[in-house]
Amino acid sequence: MTPLQETIDTLVFKYDIRREYFTILLPVILGITLILVAFMTGHTLTAQQQQATSSKQQAFEQLIQQMNQGNTTTTAAAPQTNPDLDQYIIIGGLIAITPYSIDRYLEKRRHRQREEDFTQFLFKLSELMRSGIDPIKAVIELSKTDLGSITPYVQSTASMMLLGKSFEEGMKSMAVSLKSDMITKYVNLVVQASYTGGSVHELILKASEDMRAMLMIDKEMLGNLSQYTLILYLAQAILVFVAYILTTQLVPFIQGSGSSMLFGNSDLQNINFTQSFFHLIMINAAISGVIVGKITEGSAIDGLKHSAILMVSCYLVCILVIIPAGTGGTANYIITVVSGNGQTVYPGLPAQQPVVFKVTNTNGNPQPNVYVQFSIQPSGSVNPSYDTTNNSSLVSVVATTGYDSGKYTITAKAGSTTQQAMIYANENTGT
Fold first, then answer.
1. Confidence class of residue 210 from pLDDT cuts 50, 70 and 90?
2. Is there a cis peptide before residue 384, judged by omega within 30 degrees of 0?
3. What is the Cα 340 distance to its own chain's centre?
4. Fewer Cβ atoms within 10 A, N terminus or C terminus of the chain?
């Protein structure tokens, strides 16, 4: 028994404090408190933050562009935001369910161990009774030996019998203390056998063998059902892998030139696909864990431990791999146009000069290996649609305008920061 378990048991026994206060109520209060504190300190849901600030952000960026016309070496950083309340909700939920799921898992293990040890107790009781000892004296003798996890319960029963309680009263009291329906069933059989006379020890031995067989059947059933646990865990891993592939391969294309190619002028660039995948993964992890518990152990509550395991694992993968790989992150950068701005091109043909951007952090330090996605408006295409900055924090894109003459805007986006460059399509170029 762990020190924490001993402390909880001591407090429960001494002050009559229900165990659920430590495993359910206190963790739930801590989880809710964490979420409320995060909310009150300015953390918001990502969707809320984007919806609330989209128009203001656009106006802010337009103002910055106007101020920086003719000066391509400096630009202002986007306002700092904290759109990560969803992560605090996940952490708060894990705080709420993890202690109870761990305690329930450990309690079920102790429960199974007590049932196994009780079969040994019945076997030893039958052996002593075979030698001619009456049931009460047999229990008292057994209380002096090591009976594993049920030793204190047998000792308490023996003390009751020494004080004058009957064999029936002592055994039923032990069954109540052990809190096992199976043990209660076989205790009733043993008590009834003690009143029948004849070969009582043989009936108790049969009860011991029958109980051991029932436990073996339950163990085999759990073993057979464990394959479903593996299947659901693999399904969750596949979902995470697919989300990673979509985040790194498909989403940058859709939010780049593929947006106008496939969906016209739809505003897909403002959709945070990466964060949506994160939410999907975490919700699926919680539900899959509950399903595992329902299938393998017959109780959704027993699935909370699987939910906790899946959620913690997926959360770490998302935070360390998927979200950083996404192009829809919330990091703030400074993006400047190095060259290629303002050139004139022939409509429908690629520009002769690539547009080169430089990405630094808000302190002006170089930022290599940062995902940058490109788009062009009102029509046309960019090649590539996304790329990463090189060791000099530079990244370039070749733009192809539509077939109409006029001004075209090339937008580079890194994290939550965007920067624009202009090119002009003119049929008389070069003539």
1. very high
2. yes
3. 45
4. C
User: Are 180 and 114 spatial neighbours (Cβ–Cβ below 8 Å)?
Assistant: yes
What is the pLDDT averaged over residues 20-24?
77
Measured distance CA(290)–CA(40) in Å, rounded: 31
Residue 281, CB-side half-sphere exposure with 13 Å CA sphere: 30
Query: Cα angle vertex 91, ends 90, 95, to 5°?
Result: 120
Closest CA to 85 of 287, 279, 283: 279
Which homologous superfamily does the CATH classification assign to the domain defined by 334-425?
Answer: Immunoglobulins (2.60.40.10)
Per-residue pLDDT of 119-149, as tens digits, reads 999 999 999 988 888 888 999 999 999 999 9
Beta pairing class for 380-383 and 394-401 = antiparallel
| Strand partners of residue 382 | 399
Bond preceding residue 354 cis, omega within 30 of 0: no
Q: Is 128 left (phi over 0), alpha (psi -120 to 50) or beta?
A: alpha
* Residue 399 three-state SS: strand
Residues 6+ apart with CB under 8 A from 58: none
pLDDT of res. 429: 61
Q: What is the DSSP letter of 76?
A: P
Q: Please, are residues 170 and 157 in contact by the beta-carbon 8 Å criterion?
A: yes
Residue 349, φ and ψ in degrees, nearest 5: -115, 150
Query: How many Cβ atoms from other residues are within 10 Å of residue 414's Cβ?
Result: 25
Q: Considering only CA atoms, which of 369, 356, 342, 423 is closest in space to residue 396?
A: 356
